[in-house]
Design a protein that fits this description.
Blueprint lengths: L1 H26 L2 H8 L15 H11 L3 E7 L8 E7 L16 E4 L6 E5 L11 H11 L6 H24 L6 H6 L9 H15 L1 H15 L1 H10 L24 H14 L6 E7 L4 E6 L10 E5 L5 E5 L6 H14 L4 H45 L1
Antiparallel strand pairs: 1-2, 1-5, 2-3, 3-4, 5-6, 6-7, 7-8
């Protein structure tokens, strides 16, 4: 029964996991790859004082008044640009003459405000400016509309976790001595094509088992956070409510406070709390009617607190401080840093890229093993039929 379950769950998820593994390996270095493909997007050249967040937002909104900037990166690398994301205001579809009329991602020179590049995030498919955002979106949701793709990939992650446990159970020897017999499952002995694929599939799955389980769990957290992950975590530890724990507003609240005012209020509140970190990201959520400001580097996620402000008054309404809440809070906060590899900096991203390739390899070798066995079964059945006919 376990063999049958492992076979058919593996076949069902193989294509999805292969695509997720390959795209995940690439987007582990999404910024570096994007800068290689689109150097003009990252070539800020002006010298002088930096423009304020509201001034930067106005540069994008002046291009098309039907756009509203909802996020601004404040973490400027040496000589680098700032990135802004925009959404359409209520009303007719946003668009402008020249450039990409549906652009919602912009790269700006932080001194001059010149728009260095623009594109539609996640748009298909393989042009230089679209490739990395498309891969990022495809990895998370298969680029399907609405929540459909997110839910499908979340279900795949659940099946992957379940199937990985079954796969390990199938390697356990039935006889004794247990460890001496089990040890052979960890080695690649080679030989025929079937034997080589079987050994690689089994040994790689065993050597990487813990890492694969960790990535599978974080995948569930990325795609099924409220549906599955949080309810399961709550069985073991309470979760502290955040400003996003409540219901969405009945009507989206259009931003009426400038980013400069919100940022100044956030910096004042951060100093009062003793946070000795610079602000590196600010966003506004019309659906919840609030501002969010991150302090500290985005590459140091587990030491970067967030402060949230009311969208009507800019009054502080909550925060998220890594490792300051319950065990469940910390476990939840760890999932994206783990999934992206950023929890361990560059070595972590290299490891995640390697795991992505391993996931693709496990899926492909699993299909090859099934195909070889299927041909063998058909050959035996055909031989038996011929023998009976004689």
């Amino acid at each position: 029964m376990l063999v049958l379950i492992h076979r058919y769950v593996g076949l069902t998820t193989a294509l999805f996991l292969t695509l997720a593994g390959l795209t995940g390996s690439l987007i582990a270095f999404n910024r570096e790859l994007d800068a290689l493909l689109n150097p003009a997007f990252y070539a800020a050249k002006a010298d002088g004082p930096l423009l304020s967040p509201e001034q930067l937002a106005s540069k994008v909104e002046a291009r098309d008044p039907r756009l509203s900037v909802w996020s601004i990166s404040l973490e400027r690398t040496l000589g680098g640009p700032v990135e802004l994301r925009a959404m359409a205001r209520p009303g007719p579809p946003a668009g402008a003459s020249g450039g990409d009329p549906a652009a919602d991602w912009f790269s700006l020179d932080p001194v001059s405000g010149e728009i260095l590049g623009m594109r539609t995030w996640g748009a298909c498919c393989f042009s230089r400016e679209r490739l990395v955002p498309f891969l990022y979106d495809f990895h998370h949701s298969l680029s399907l509309p609405g929540a459909l793709g997110v839910l499908i990939m979340g279900a795949v992650a659940l099946f992957w976790l379940f199937d990985s446990l079954i796969g390990v159970a199938l390697t356990l020897p039935l006889g004794r001595p247990f460890f001496r017999k089990w040890r052979s499952a960890f080695t690649i002995k080679g030989g025929s094509t079937f034997r080589l694929n079987l050994d690689w599939h089994r040994a790689a799955g065993l050597w990487l088992f813990v890492l694969l389980i960790i990535v599978a769990v974080s995948s569930i957290a990325m795609n099924l956070r409220t549906q599955v992950f949080e309810p399961v975590v709550k069985l073991f530890s309470p979760l502290t409510p955040t400003p996003f724990s409540g219901a969405l507003l009945a009507e989206p609240l259009e931003r009426s406070i400038s980013y400069d005012v919100a940022l100044a209020r956030a910096e004042s509140e951060a100093r009062a709390r003793g946070w000795d970190l610079p602000p590196t990201y600010i966003f506004y959520s019309p659906a919840f009617g609030l501002f969010g400001v991150r302090f500290g580097s985005g590459d140091a996620m587990m030491s970067s607190p967030w402060l949230y402000l009311d969208g009507r008054t800019a009054a502080p309404i909550g925060d998220v401080v890594p490792r300051a809440g319950t065990a469940g809070d910390t476990f939840l906060q760890l999932q994206f840093p783990i999934h992206s590899g950023r929890i361990a900096g560059l070595p972590g991203r290299i490891l995640i890229a390697a795991i992505g390739l391993a996931v693709a390899g496990l899926s492909i070798t699993g299909v090859v093993i099934w195909w070889i066995k299927r041909r063998a079964r058909r050959g035996r059945a055909s031989g038996t039929s011929m023998a009976k006919s004689r």
